[in-house]
Amino acid sequence: MDTLLPSLQILDIANCQQVESFPEGKRSAFLRRTSTSLSTLPIKEFQNLRSLDKKGLQLLTSLQLLSISDCPRLKARGWDFLQYFAAGVPGSFHGCLFPKASLHLIHSSCALNWLSKIPIEITDESSPAWNKGRIHYTNATKEVVEAYETQFSKDMESFLFSRAQELVVGGLLVLFVPAVPDVMSNSDTFTGTELDILGSCLMNMAKVGLVEEAKVDSFNVPAYYTPPKKLKALIERNGNFSIKRMEVLNNQKKHLILQSSSLRSLYLRAVLEGMIEKHFGNEILDELFNRFTHKIEGSSFFLNPETEKLIILFVLLERNN
Ligand SMILES: C[S@@+](CC[C@H](N)C(=O)[O-])C[C@H]1O[C@@H](n2cnc3c(N)ncnc32)[C@H](O)[C@@H]1O
Known about the structure:
Radius of gyration: 26 Å
CATH class of the largest domain: Alpha Beta
Shape: elongated
Number of strands: 9
Bound molecules: S-adenosylmethionine
């Protein structure tokens, strides 16, 4: 049989009301004649589609992506490869969660900025990295910053090691990582500034006896925002993955939804309340976040949302041999 459209790679088919099985009849013959090149086949809005013809589709030897949307009557009968499994797995992603070589795709979204623990030296009074009077590394000494960096490096190593165990060779790891641009410091970001301000509110409360100062000194937020270069170096050092893509996601407008100081305060409270309550008790929460709201009202940083520098890195990795 002659090959039709020998270079056709993408065929987008939509709005076929009559079709009940796909591919069938004329479509099957057409697909067979494009079989050598077709790699992407999105089908959508087949209102009466009830079944897919497995044999017909298997003729498409180059097919890599079959996407199906708005086909409300389609049943997955007999379509083993269209079935998905959902499982809740307890445990930390810094360790292995799934059996060896059992996954083809892993996605981690906006979570790798959370460290597995606070680096021990930043709560040690005798260490040069003691983080006195602060709750984060923003604007802290270089020893504190280094302690956070070291913990992040260890955590990334365990994360990548664990995912490398779980993925098949050639499997993909897709990451969205909250980060800071290479040339910026954490104090150029809302998140860094917010944590610094929250720390100063706690210190002010300590000065008037509302919390113990020692409690503030021993409280630290286990979050680290990596520069892209550092993350790239850690992935390369791990050696289990090839970097297929690494770029900054366009999230420029995200600040627009949190324009007022009370909304920003609520947002931060939602993220940190559990941690703060566990360390200080719940009596301080309203007072702390009221103080925080008032303090950021006067901060020029927050009056100019365009100053936000936090980025989300998109990283696509492939498991090596
Ligand atoms: C900002 S939320 C992101 C949620 C979701 N992935 C998304 O993109 O909308 C961060 C999530 O990471 C989870 N997380 C942080 N550290 C973790 C760890 N070591 N193991 C498993 N989950 C963790 C938190 O519980 C939280 O649900």
